[in-house]
Amino acid sequence: MTISVLVVDDQALIRAGFSAIIDSEPDLVVVGEAATGREAVDRARALRPDVVLMDIRMPELDGLHATEQITSEPELSAVHVLVLTTFEADENVLAALRAGAAGFLGKDVGPTGLIEAIRTVAAGDSLLSPRATRSLIARYLSTPMEASATVSDRRLDSLTEREREVVVLVGRGLSNEQIAATLFVSPFTAKTHVNRAMTKVGARDRAQLVVIAYQTGLVRAGDL
C-alpha cells in the first residue's frame, strides 16, 4: 500500500531534496508540495495525504498553526503531520505535539531516518525518539496548565486499570511490541488497549496520548 506525502517547506531546494528521497522508495509517493503554511492547509484539504512533512518557520502561516488547523478538522483525521525543522528548541517540540503533530524530527536526520519516520507516522504511531526528545517532552509536560490537567483527569476516569497501565507505557515511549512484552500479552492485544485508551480520552494519536499521560501526572520526567 502506497503512502502519500505532502512536502511543506518555504525553500524550493529543500522540498526538491525531500521529494527525491521520498519518491525513491517503492511504497512512498509525493503527491504535492507547499511553500507556505496556508498552502499546506489548502493542499492537505485537497489531496488528503497520509503524511504531511511540515516545516515550522514559513511565511503567511507558520508550520505549528498550519498543523493545528489540519489536525483540528474532522475530515482530515487520517492525515498525520510530521514536523521537520532546524529549530529543535524545547518549546518547538512541545508546541508541535500540542498542535497535534504525530512526530518531530530535526532536519539533520538522514534519508533512512526520514523514510522510517514517515512510515512510522503513517502507521498511526507517534515518533518521539530519540530518548533525549522524550526527556524534553517529559520536562515540559510534567507541569501542565491546571485547566488542561483537570479536563484530562476526568477523561482518565473511563479507563480500566489495564488501559491506565498501557497509557503509562506509551508515555514512556514504548512501542506496541515492547508493551506486549512488558505486560505478557500479544502485540495485537497491546494495540487494542492503546486504541481503546486513545478513543476514551479523545487522543487523535499516540503523541497526544503521551501529552495526556504527562499532563495528568501518570508519567513524570523522572520515570524515563
Automatic annotation (TrEMBL):
Residues 152-217 form the HTH luxR-type domain. GO terms for biological process: phosphorelay signal transduction system; regulation of DNA-templated transcription. Residues 4-122 form the Response regulatory domain. It comes from the Bacteria. Coiled coil: none annotated. Keywords: DNA-binding, Phosphoprotein, Transcription, Transcription regulation. This is LuxR family two component transcriptional regulator. It comes from Humibacillus xanthopallidus.
